[in-house]
Amino acid sequence: MAAEGGKIDPMHQFLVEPLFGKHLIVGGYDISFTNSALFMVLTLACIWAFMMGGMKRALIPGRWQAAVEGFTGFVANMMETNIGPKGKAFTPYVFSLFMFILVANLIGMLPLGIVPGWHAFTVTSHLTVTGVLAIISFSIVLVVGFARHGFHFFSLFVPHGTPGYMIPLIFLIELFSFLIRPFSLGLRLFVAMTAGHILLKVLAGFVINGINAGPGIAAIVSIPSFILMIGITLLELLVCAIQAYVFALLTSLYLNDAINLH
Amino acid sequence: MPQIAQIAATYASQIFWLLIVFGVIFFGIGYGMFPKIQGTVELRDRKIADDLAAAEAARKAADMTEEAYRAKMDAARSEAQQAAQAAKAKAAAETEQRVKAANAELSAQADAANARIAAAQAEALAGIEDVAAEAAQEIVARVSGAAVDRAAAAQAVKAALANG
Fold first, then answer.
1. Where are the strands (E) in chain A, listed by range?
2. Do A11 and B2 touch (CB under 8 A)?
3. Would B24 be classed as within a structural domain?
4. More confident residue, A221 or A1
5. A117: which of A78, A153, B17, B157 lies 20 to 30 Å off by Cα?
6. Domain extent at residue B29
């Protein structure tokens, strides 16, 4: 949160800046290690540490191993119900996606702002990141679809029982809805995370500015805002999990289209 | 909105680091750890299923053993019952035979005794006639002095006895 001249900018949290102010430019591209990259690496470290606890592979699992197996079993189960046995090959990808989004979302909610000069950065609140993930998912769907079914993959756009004269129109509509998938996939996560974090920061600004304006205003503005913030923080934690689940679920459904057609 | 305002300046860095991090997650965790963890889970599930099947088989075997035991017990019991019945019947028949034989012997003895009694009675009766005739001869001789011959006396006794 940047409080420059008493103003609190709720968008500052999304600013990407190179750490230590150093830029790393390779071949004309700026690939500096930014705060965004730092939080990606933190996410990786958290997932890695969490998963290592499940690598004891004991016959009778301990608490940690049971938790890890809960996550893997959850994703494996989802793939099994949505795609069937053929979906097993894609479970590692969907699991990686789910864990990355979930942990990145949750790390973004950490109250790191209490350390001066720090603020949590939500990797998944950036369209670049969610867009790349969505494009990877969509590319896998396309590659798998055409590799398994060839041009027969286009039959996906003509549902069974469509009357002959409706086929051109239905084909166009279905094709459009198919092509819009990567955008909706990437935008959904980006918008959900961004909106939640802006709301939290705006309310936090109300709390701080209310306190600065004196006890009367604080009682009217700051206290209700603070209570609301608690509720919205809980809601945001829920949204973190739901958005990760939705992203993984939709990827599995799209993969199902590519693997089994209709 | 920095996500869009900064996109031209930061897309390369974000995509670069995202691909590195996500690649590590995908290959290290997704392909490295995930199958192993799921393998452990499957192994456990299979072991549990196997153990349950073994327990079920053992239960069935126990049931079968109990059934066989019960059948054998039933057979043995009925055999014992039959043997007891046969022994009882045999004993009863033997007893009956023995009783019958004893009866026959007893009745033969009784018959013989009866015959002896009858003979003795007849003998006694004949003896009485003789004694009575003799007594009558003596009485007549004492009373009247007349000598009655033996034949007459016997005649008279016989008549008196027949009347008496």
1. 3-4, 7-8, 25-26, 29-30
2. yes
3. yes
4. A221
5. B17
6. 2-124
